[in-house]
Amino acid sequence: xxxARPLLALAVALxxxxxxxxxxxxxxxxxxxxxxxxxxxxxAAGTLSAAKNEFxxxxxxxxxxxxxxxxxxxxxxxxxxxxxxxxxxxxxxxxQYASAADGATGSFPDALIPDVDDVVGEKRNAxxxxxxxxxxxxxxxxxxxxxxAAAGDYAGTVTVHAAEGDAVVPVKLTVWDFALxxxxxxxxxxxxxxxxxxxxLSGDALTALExxxxxxALDHRVSLHDVRDGANPDWAHFDRWYGPLLDGAMPxxxxxxxxxxxxxxxxxxxxxxxxxxxxxxxxxxxxxxxxQYTCDEPPITCAWSDIAARAQNAKQADPSFRTxxxxxxxxxxxxxxxxxxxxxxxxxxxxxxxxYDAYGWTAGGETRPAYDAFLSAPGKELWLYxxxxxxxxxxxxxxxxxxxxxxxxxxxxxxxxxxxxxxxxAMEWFSFRYGASGELYYETTQAYYARDPWTGGLWxxxxxxxxxxxxxxxxxxxxxxxxxxxxxxxxxxVREGMEDYEYLKLLTDLGGGDEAQAIAKQxxxxxxxxxxxxxxxxxxxxxxxxRIVALSSQAAPAASSSGAGGSAATSSPGGxxxxxxxxxxxxxxxxxxxxxxxxxxxxxxxxGLLTFLGGPLALAxxxxxxxxxxxx
Length: 632
Known about the structure:
Number of domains: 2
Protein name: Glycoside hydrolase 123 C-terminal domain-containing protein
Region (Disordered): 558-598
Keywords: Signal
Structural class: alpha/beta
Shape: globular
Signal peptide: 1-22
């Protein structure tokens, strides 16, 4: 006869009201990507540390089956009160191809659907949702610490509601006694041109939407450099809509955040239009953030011989009108255009390339010292960008059987969906390490041009998410009544990297430049070694914070030189940043990158790389159109 006790226990369990059972949840840091098949963990609380005026996040994983899932959060209380965290549902995207040999296929989290959006404040449809049995879906929980918050420990809760029962997640926040600026110290120029293709708006309604994209970007410490209404603006209209972005008057969460850059819409062949832009920007006090996008990846989008004439049209308008070219020092020198460039923007690979002698190519090595002479001239700056060279610029890879060439494209800073969260966050650490004062990224809405990302995905130029950091937030998709941009999980990680840069810069300004460089280099020895563990990155960040607090409490000079190569570009966004300090000359200087761009081209093929990978890739893989001066 079977024992009665197990049957009795089962009967009691079935008789319990639903509310007495708890939905299974666990927590993870914000610098991870939790996929639907993730194994459950024991972590049951969200534990955060942040500076004042910083965003910090953690994730709550909800294990299925769970029905009608929603969540609510309380304010955080301690030495003061901090508003309740914002809540998002992480939408999944199915990837058919891997971006690189260290990528993956299948479902990944990316778009963040808000409960109440952070652009216009409307209720959206993050909740409720159902989690299928055997899967794990995730909530993104984000805290913004006000700039005036008192330092100390705070506590609150997030409650996950479901038909299967509520689960209460404790939230613990430590606020460090220093603050981050609202406007990023690291300049940026990220493109955005696809909003019109995915939102059925026109006229002022479309213009308003464009400013919302720029507003959300500012709250992620990124500047959209080409938000405007064409090459020949009505300045009254421009000032009404875009002036607040430059003046710090948008309703951003980061109070007073301002664009750090804007490219002129002037025709590259027109000195008169450049003069018009220069005059207006000078009158409004914005001129230090204006630049001419002189040429993108020569010789792909322009001939080397075009650069001097284009630059002269800007300089004729005003000698201080800055020019930007995405190339490296070796190619600029070889082609005689070094004197025509103010903002030189090499791809990250060519600041410290991967050694690949084993593949029969050439040795890598650091080339940062090659920029010292360029940066010694007044008004010159080094910016960086990443390209398809972070994941491979053509074809697909067999992730189970990668070739030698496939392995080159692994480990780099990358904004791809299937790159690790740490790699999404790493780029700005290298900007600091190499003394760069800005970052360029060609586009944030690339997928919008050809398809609806919600149904067509983000596969562009052999990368998942190449050029797409936003998702189109249309009411039919996310609820509410107003079109808005949605941040991707990757855009959140870009912001984390921008905030990491502020930590490194703050420590440098307090006289700890050598320490900051050492911490950054230990975490990320080379750009192709950017896949550190999340715990190691957070430990490095905590180490920086501890040193900032310690040095801030001492009677030390408020600022100093950057020591071993931290960025010294500390001018206000209204003026032009000075040249950056020299990077650490720790590696071989090399002979230059060989290629002028991040994707290679005829005349810019590092040691026969294109020949090795296949000639048809030469122009097909690079997608970027020169958008300076292009009408919207």
